[in-house]
Batch of 2 targets.
Target 1
Amino acid sequence: MNKLTIFTILSALVTMAKADCFSTSMGYPCCSGCEDIYEDDDGKWGVENDDWCGIDEAKCNPSSNNDASCWSLPDYPCCEGDTVIYSDESGDWGVENDEWCGIVKSSATTSKEPTKTTTKKSTSTSSSSTEVLYPQYEEMECTPPDVFSYGQCCHGEDIEAYGKCGGKDWTGSTCCMVGTSCKEVNEWVSLCEPDPTAPIRPAVGPVGVHGKPWCKLPNCVVTENQMGYNWGYDVVNDEGCEIPEYECYDLINKTWGPQEYPVGTEKGVTTRYYDCCKPSCSWPGKADVTQPVRQCAMDGKTLLTDFSSPSACQTDVEGISHMCEDQQPWAVSDVLSYGFAAAALPGGESVSCCACYAITFSEPPIRGKQIVVQVTNTGADVGSNQFDLQIPGGGVGIFDACTNMYGLPSGSNGWGKKYGGIDKIEDCDSFPEALQAGCRWRFEFLLGADNPKMTFVEVECPKVLTDITGCIRN
């Protein structure tokens, strides 16, 4: 693009602005917004009111001048807290009052075991955990006042679906929102009509092409495709949501890696539970092991050495044996986690109890991520090749010892729904402190994926798992 040529063509449209940014000295105003479409040695440029303008970096990228500033303004508020839910090239994001907010750089909390996503720009279609994928566009020359904008030539603000985008004597915007294209109706009217093949653009406004809210990141799990449009599900509002294709492009197309453990070929599915009951593999005689899986008293910490102790979930006797609180998942990187699971595998418990499996998720937004689990349990509600991941807040399922163990209201089913558990990461704040990290893991590492499919293979048990359960297969 020849900026000087375009400047000459547009010079009649220029008005001087009283703003302090690099472009004013060249005769061009500062942009009121922050969307840049071109960059040269002078700085970043945008187009507003059919005119070139300079991006004010002090306003649009304050974090480059002050690490303690709130970089997410004006689009999103600053977070009051410092809990990182998601990260992208802009910075660290949190959620407060059911709304995304930017975390001030100087206050972001870093855990000793990294569990959040860190990203940097990449154009690869197979990426490591630190890369982020963006749509690729074929460059084209545009005739002013049109400019190259996300794979098409247009100018102005994005127009909502079925809004006017052209026609005889039309002087307004010609850029249609994502999922639509400007199509001629007659000589006088062109409208932004639905077009699933249109170039991918950032989402604007509160709703998508079909009038439903956009799915909020990192909820990029595609639950169905209708007429070429991807849909997700908002568990908080219990309704369908439209997938923002640009914002979700990375998570939908990314394959996390590299993997530290073998990628299996046996297909299965993961679910989740947390019932606080004595693990099935804690009973003696289940398998040829050094000892059964460790069990705990009601406090979740004190070990019970009598492996014949009745389970807190038994109805025929007063049970005292519970699941130990340290048997919960944790992340060691953006790609790898360790944890525990109930499973139903060929050969039964004599084969599976205390065995370990590398699970590689096969669906976005966590395709390529791995969790190595040790099997500590089974259940009548666990199907073939199903791994029921032991996640605090994952739902109690058939049995519930959590309500009594933690003094919860009668009939509360532990936390959340009986099957599936809680819906959002904020619910983890009400958990006992010892369970909060494992509860958040589902949203920070699994990115809220709901019962994702996977492949698995048996592996040698890592010491970090057997040190917790005390159970090693002979």
Target 2
Amino acid sequence: MKIIFWLIACFGCVVQSQIIDLDDSFSVDPEDDTPWLVEFYAPWCGHCKRLEPIYHQVYLDLEKSHIKVAKLDATRHTTVSAKYEVQGFPTILFIQGDRVFKHQGDRTKEAITEFAKRALGPTIKVISNGAKYFDIRSEHADSSFFLYIGAQQGLSELMTKFAAVTDKLAVHSYYYSCERKILPPDFVKHLQHDPTLVVFKDREWYEYEPGESGVTRSSVEAFVARERHLAFPKLAGGGGLSDMSDLRKKIVVIVVNDADKESVKLNSRMKDIATMMSTKYRRDFHAHFQFAWMDDPETMNTITMTTLKLPALIVFDTETQYYYLPEFNLVDITYNSFSKFLNEIRDGSAPSFGGTGFLQRVKRIAYDIWIAVYSIYEASAWLALLVFGLPSAVISIVCYALCCMEPIDDAEDTDDENIDENASPVDAPVKDPKHVKNE
């Protein structure tokens, strides 16, 4: 009997440990505070299959939280995927009432779990003492975080604007608030405003400047959006690049292949130059360029619709969809050649490629179709054969039949009719006299 109870308990644990499978009945009330982490996937998607064990680990990490972890086949339940404007696979969304956030970072257990926890909130956490302040500085030594410094009793105009902005950008950074008195005096004496807003990143800090119009939501949002990225971060594919689309800057991307041992020195030199330009010479380039690097060339290959030779340097304008490539050999790259290239882009003298013209859009459609076909083939050759090969074969057979079928020869019948109509009395057959007499 004990064994039976043990088996039932184990079965119950297995059932409960499963990720929730959703269908078209899934709907979230705007007033419902239940948090959901939902993966929208396609059965044929190779990236989705690679994410499956990682996503299960995410579920295990969040099992004791209030977040419900679920997944939905977007190819079958299109109503829900269309509602949330899912356009690629896999797509991971955090949904809580009318709050929806899209994960655009690395597809690792740590990154996805941290994304869910950020979205769950609270968005702005209070630092109560100096020791906690130093812990926060140490914890985010390799990332960025924003700190509102001012009285915690009552809401200042800056705090009101900051809270509104952070609710919108909850998953993009870390946000804190504290009173001025708990901070180190050597730091406080350099602050220009009270209350104020400061961002810590790259071992430095930068203060928000209200501007001539005073404290406005647009200026606070611009400050947070502009400063939430590190000076030279690593991008997680296309999601990381699209996450920078609100910067209104050109993105300077260095694409490397860390597995290529022959390019290790060149990769390192390019990264070192970009780091120097984005930090030491921040004043010269920060207003117009955001530097970044990635080790996945797929995103940049998609932008250029070519296969880039690595390492590569590309500058992409997220607003116009134009991109720029250096004319010099990257083997000879120096700070001077790099900065000259960026200055030519800034003054408009550098040649640009891409854009959103008609021919470019046609080329993009053809390229996207090819990539979609290839992705399905890579995931399952038999599925690709069934989806594309079989219809192509049927169409080919029909076309061949229509083009090569021999026409019916009506010439003989037509000739016989003409002969009967034009026959002379002499040529007419003679009737039997007996038959005529009877008539």
